[in-house]
Structure formats: structure tokens, C-alpha cells
Write a structure and sequence with these properties.
This protein is mainly alpha-helical and 129 residues long. The chain has one domain. Helix content is 45%, strand content 6%. It has a three-stranded antiparallel sheet with strand order 1-2-3, with no helix packed on it. Helix 3 packs parallel to helix 6.
Length: 129
């Protein structure tokens, strides 16, 4: 998925995209219902009860904490926390005109939940490398 494709999604579609990539799945027994049940292996909920990833930093911290660390010398290419941080920096830098360049990781500290979600989706779908 590209950044433009992600930006074209409605907020509820972005939220569901993040949930799917974070491990939520539709319960097959209720998938065809008007209000399907989502399951992440620990809890089941309706779509309106999914974490509010786009505005809740604590919800974002859940997927950040579960991103794999880079494995040196590994043959398998999986999206890692390093890839996520690189994408997040690019997203934040595009939105801020002036940044204090002397502060390490300024972009990571000040990223909004919505920016973190965008970086997560782009990382997990290997978009906008």
C-alpha cells in the first residue's frame, strides 16, 4: 500500500486496516452479519469497539511493542521496528516545517497516533520504501 492509497481511506477504513495488521480477524461465524465480530486471540468485539488507533497513543503502543527487532544476518525480510521508525520519521518531517535538529528522535517523540498508524500500515505492507 502506498501513502496515497492509505490517505484515500476513510478514518474507519484506516482503523480497520491497522486492526487487521495488528492481528485482529473477523470471526468466521459472524463475518456475514451486519455488525461482525472481531477477534484478536484474547478478546472479541464489534468494529465500533476496536481500539481507536488513530487517536489513542496507548493503542498505538500495543502494535509498536509487538513489532519485531531487526535480526542481523537473517535471510527472511520481515518488517521491523527499525523500518517502522524510518517511515515514521519521514511522515512527521513532511508535516512539520521547522524542527529542532539537535534533539535525537524528536520525530518519534512528537508523532501523533494517526501518524504512527500510517507508518505502521506502510511498514507492514512494505509500502513507500
Amino acid at each position: 500500500m502506498t501513502a496515497e492509497q492509505y490517505d484515500a481511506l476513510r478514518p474507519d477504513e484506516q482503523r480497520i486496516k491497522v486492526a487487521l495488521l495488528h492481528g485482529y480477524t473477523l470471526d468466521p461465524e459472524y463475518a456475514d452479519c451486519v455488525d461482525p465480530i472481531w477477534d484478536n486471540g484474547m478478546e472479541r468485539c464489534h468494529a465500533d469497539q476496536l481500539p481507536d488507533f488513530l487517536s489513542n497513543l496507548n493503542a498505538c503502543h500495543e502494535f509498536e511493542e509487538n513489532m519485531p527487532w531487526p535480526i542481523l544476518g537473517g535471510d527472511v525480510k520481515v518488517p521491523t521496528l527499525f523500518d517502522y521508525c524510518r517511515k515514521l520519521r519521514r511522515i512527521v518531517r513532511k508535516e512539520y516545517r521547522v524542527m529542532p535538529m539537535t534533539i535525537d528522535d524528536w520525530e518519534l517523540l512528537h508523532a501523533t497516533a494517526a501518524q504512527r498508524c500510517k507508518a505502521f500500515v506502510l511498514t507492514m505492507t512494505e509500502g513507500d520504501s
